[in-house]
Amino acid sequence: MTTTPEPPPTPSRAAAVKAKLLDPLGDFLRDETAGGVVLLIGAVIALLWANSPWGDAYADLWDAHLALGVGGATLDLTLRRWVNDGAMALFFFVVGMEIKRELVTGELRDPRAAALPAIAAAGGVVAPAAIYLLVVGGGAGADGWAIPTATDIAFAVGALALLGDRVSAGVRLFLLTIAIVDDVIAIVIIAVVYSAAPALGWLALGLAALGGVVALQRLGVASPLAYAPLALVAWLAVHESGVHATIAGVALGLLVPARPFRGRDVLAPLEHRLHPISAFVVVPLFALANAGVDLGGGVLGDALGSSLTWGVAGGLVLGKLVGITGATLLALRLRVGTLPAGMRPVQVVGVGALGGIGFTVSLFVTELAFGGGPHADAAKVGIFAGSLAAGVLGAALLLALSRRPGPA
């Protein structure tokens, strides 16, 4: 007697919805993990190059000027500024899309689910800034108070990847959500603290270009190429206004529709195309342009003797650990928000430590706060040392705290 094999079961609607939500997250985590490796390679190359016999060539390259434009409409910037103001606008555009996705379809759409990582991220900003100011005190060095407040998603997720399945998906989700909220706070700090008083005419032009993007959306224009000229005008106008140009990238990212537009998804495919460029090209190029500190000539000794170096390192290692852990556990005690499924309260300590991997945005804020010179060198040494210590400490804590107790 023969039997007809049963057809494979059809995926349920719930499973399809779950896959739709988790697939972008999985792609994001994979890109960030691999991107962290490339970012580390870029930083190491920059350090080795700056401290090699060809160190002068490193400095000359990134300080060389490049003028783009026609006639009087020419923008003349150093190559480092083109990377920091131009290429990094794409990085922040992707960040803007990630924030939009989380606000509309992700963890941040539910106020109760968003409350806990938002409180944790706020604690992870206040405590590092307080420790930095306590160590550094007043003076010109105080301008760098925001340097240790950032969390680098690529390196933090990469550190989690080294632990494999010994850390639950809930821990990864909590860290990722904290890092995204941290990005929101960093964007506000950059716009408010590290931007000059705006030139209102240029700022009005930038807002008009953003308004043009909204108008094209209302008219149903779906081609991304149609928006490119307006995006370029918005970036140039914001740059010339005195507000940091990367804010234009964030604003444009937030304007990308997170729900189907004219019957098709826009945000996910666009993020899928641009995120690898951001992770594997822009951010490593930024590290290559900014991580090269010449440690010779007493620079390293001066940095180790500088309160600024220890303020940055202490803010990243101790400030993030205390701030994220303390704020989260207090919120849980007050019954404000809940941890993701599969995550235990004790693991918050490890997440707080990993939050101290600042690197990319910390280097970015260093350039805004100090430009170059001894303060910038001391801050960068503090970022390298603090991020490395935070990564090792966070991974060790999560490994120890994620072990399940054996049977009684």
In short, what is this structure?
The chain has one domain: Up-down Bundle (Na+/H+ antiporter like fold). The chain is 69% helix and 3% strand.
Can you name the CATH architecture? Up-down Bundle
- From the N-terminal CA to the C-terminal CA, the straight-line distance is 51 Å
Shape: globular
Widest sheet: strand ordering: 1-2
CATH level-4 homologous superfamily: Na+/H+ antiporter like domain
Q: The CATH topology, please?
A: Na+/H+ antiporter like fold
- Helical content stands at 55-70%
The proportion of residues in beta strands is under 5%
- pLDDT under 50 segments (min length 5)? 9-22
List the helices and strands and how they pair.
Elements: H1 13-50, H2 55-63, E1 65-70, E2 73-78, H3 79-104, H4 111-136, H5 153-162, H6 169-192, H7 200-218, H8 224-241, H9 246-255, H10 267-290, H11 299-304, H12 307-333, H13 348-354, H14 360-370, H15 374-401
Antiparallel strand pairs: 1-2
Helix pairs in contact: 1-5, 1-10, 3-6, 3-9, 3-10, 4-6, 4-12, 5-6, 5-15, 7-8, 7-9, 8-9, 10-14, 12-13, 12-15, 13-15, 14-15
Keywords, please?
single chain, 408 residues, mainly alpha, Na+/H+ antiporter like fold, 15 helices, 2 strands
Overview of the structural elements:
The protein is mainly alpha-helical and 408 residues long. Helix content is 69%, strand content 3%. The protein has a two-stranded antiparallel ribbon with strand order 1-2. Helix 1 packs across helix 5, helix 1 packs parallel to helix 10 and helix 8 packs antiparallel against helix 9. The chain is globular and about 60 Å long. The protein starts with 12 loop residues before the first helix and ends in a 7-residue tail after the last helix. About 3% of the residues have low confidence.
